Every structure is written in C-alpha cells, then in structure tokens.
Amino acid sequence: xxxxxxxxxxxxxxxxxxxxxxxxxxxxxxxxxxxxxxxxxxxxxxxxxxxxxxxxxxxxxxxxxxxxxxxxxxxxxxxxxxxxxxxxxxxxxxxxxxxxxxxxxxxxxxxxxxxxxxxxxxxxxxxxxxxxxxxxxxxxxxxxxxxxxxxxxxxxxxxxxxxxxxxxxxxxxxxxxxxxxxxxxxxxxxxxxxxxxxxxxx
Length: 202
What we know:
Blueprint: H1 48-116, H2 122-142, E1 147-148, E2 160-166, E3 176-181, E4 183-184, E5 194-199
Parallel strand pairs: 2-5
Antiparallel strand pairs: 1-4, 3-5
Helix pairs in contact: 1-2
C-alpha cells in the first residue's frame, strides 16, 4: 500500500477557530482598550464643573454688593441735593423779603414826615398823604403787582370781585360802576382782586 505523508500534530491547547465573515478580529490583550474618559476628579483635582457654580455665586454676590453700594451713594447724593436746594430756597426767600422791605422804606419815611407836619395846613397834609399813597402804589407795581381801580370797564372775574349790583342807567350792564377796594396783581401774581359794584342788567 502507498504511504501518504501525515500532517504534523497540532497542540491541543491552540485549536483553530474559524472566523465568520464580517466579524472583527478579537481584541488583543497587549493593546490598550478604549474605555470611558476618566475625570480629573479621580486624580484628586477639581474639575471645571465642580468650580463653576461656586465661581458664579461669588460673581453674583459681588455684583449685588456693588449695586447696593451705588444705591446707597445715590441716596446720599439725593439727600445732599435736597438739603442744598432747601438752603438755597430759604436764602432766596430771605433776599426777596429784604428787597421788598427795603422798597417800602421810603414810603415809611414819607409817612413819618407827614406826621411831623400834622399841625400844618390840612390841605398840605392831604396832598402829602396822597403822594405817599402814589409812592406805595408805584413800589407795588415795580414788584410786579400793578393796581386795578378802573371804573367803566367790563367786569372780569379774573380781576374783579362783585360785592354789589346797582341800577345805573348811564352804565352798560355788566360794567364796573364803583371800586370799593383796589386790586393788585395779575394772573398767578395776583395779591387780591378788586372789590367792585357792577351795573345791573335790565
């Protein structure tokens, strides 16, 4: 019989396993295997996620403190401005009072002079008092308060206060017949309206 060569015997510990088509090769033990990324926290160092909330909280606290400081400074500035405005207003009032009083000093001087000559001619006394009256009226007009004592003009509720209604055939209805008390000033700068009597309508 012909003798056929025999294949060498394979060790039993290394069997050949067929690999199916499309399957990858098995991983080698001598190569590093992929795995989930290890966090730096595992090495004892804090990661960015652990420091983020604390840093943001510190920034918010600092911002709030800065806003509170600015708010307190604004309140202090406003209070100082209010006090300074009150002082300036009081000073302006004092200056205005002094100016008004100084404007009436000549009127008082003329009244004192008229009283000194009270025993002289009565006609001269009357003229002196009338001159003092005109001087006082002029002072009020210079201060912005003109005198209103006109008759024969139409009744104006902004300038006149009706204290009586009379029958006067010579005066048109609704006109001022008599001024009982002169008025001073106009509009918002009115000291008082003129007290008048008005012609009655038919």
